[in-house]
## 1
Amino acid sequence: MIKIIKYFLQAIAVYFFFIFIKLIGLKLSRKFFSYVFNSIGPLIKSTIVIEDNLEKFIGSYNENKKKNIKHEMWTNYGKTFVEYLFLKKFKKNNSHIIIKCEDI
């Protein structure tokens, strides 16, 4: 029963975020949720997996590089979360896609 309540509350939070995103628009939402994901992301369980993978990839010699990668990753997650709500808009106008060397 506790799981059901937990999932229900999470669903309400996500729907609230969706409404909030639509109200403030794409540009502000990207910035806001990049910040939110950077603030909350490091507190979740997957941080251990992220640290292990970065340790394997970079090693312990470059902590600044690992910190930057994690920051960029959470920023990207926040932006992607927002962009899902605007997929129709993206598909409709294709203004976010730039094709270079199309003639090749």
Note: DSSP finds five helices and no strands in the chain.
## 2
Amino acid sequence: MTPPDAASDPVVSRTALAHGTIIPVLGIPVSFETSDPQVLGIIEEAFGAWRILDQVPSLVADAHVTFRIWVEEGAEAGPPHAEIVRYQPDPDRVVLRTPGSVVIADAARGDAAAWLTSALLADRARVRHRVLEAATLALLDGFDRQAIPAAAITRDRTALLLAGPAGSGKSTLAYLAGRHGYRVLADDAVYIQLRPQLRVWGMPGHIHLSPGARRHFPELGEETAEVLNGGMQRLVVSAKALRALPELPLAPSAGVCVLTPGGAGPTLEVVPGEALEVELSRAVANGADALEPTVAEAVRALSRYGGWRLDPGEDPHAVLPLIETMFEAMDAD
């Protein structure tokens, strides 16, 4: 599909899309407009937890961005699950492409546009996670929301970040905690607001687990694995069905635990502030030479009072008492 040029095509630039809704994602009002009402259902799955902020207007920014989505009949070439390729032609724009679809998110303009085939839209879980969520978060990149790779669980508005790169066990521990009465604020990434005060925003709604999690959690046996990208399968668990949705999709502060798998865990160590900043910076950078200044500032703010280092070991169930230990320590402060 070749996207029309909205700048030069007056039909595209002036045509109002028939279906729309506004949701304050990460506290930023996003106007979603689409030609296909099915898209609204997927948007609701992705971002519906944010509607609670309509009742707390003080948490909603005085800003507005727009995401327009056109859907046309069409197929995707290649395998059953079309590969979604992401690239960034400049600091402000993110482009997502498949053989038949394209999405462009421009953070500087506060505008995103997607042209999707009906075949891609039918791949519902991937469209939610890899297209709508990914493009919306890229669109909000220009706001004070610094991405940190961490799961986040909460109890009584106190949050614990479980930070680490892909494969470190973040989602597994988030699911474990959700099964035992904690609320899952995020399973893979949080977004740190620094001004006027520190806030930890999550992406509540779904927990994405590797199929291997079934060996620890037999109840996942009936969950269908979804191909989210590049042949990678994930079990997609609804946090609402797990009764693990937080009351609000943010926390005013959080303790930090850096995951360091690969040892003879589970072991938990207290880490002072400066050392925690180094370890969290390493986890966030994930091999990059340096952090963006705003991300480095977020890491510094999160690490200021120290935290923990956790080797989760082979059995996630054995980590549950250590999670309780960290919450008890935060409650005592």
Note: DSSP finds eight helices and 20 strands in the chain.
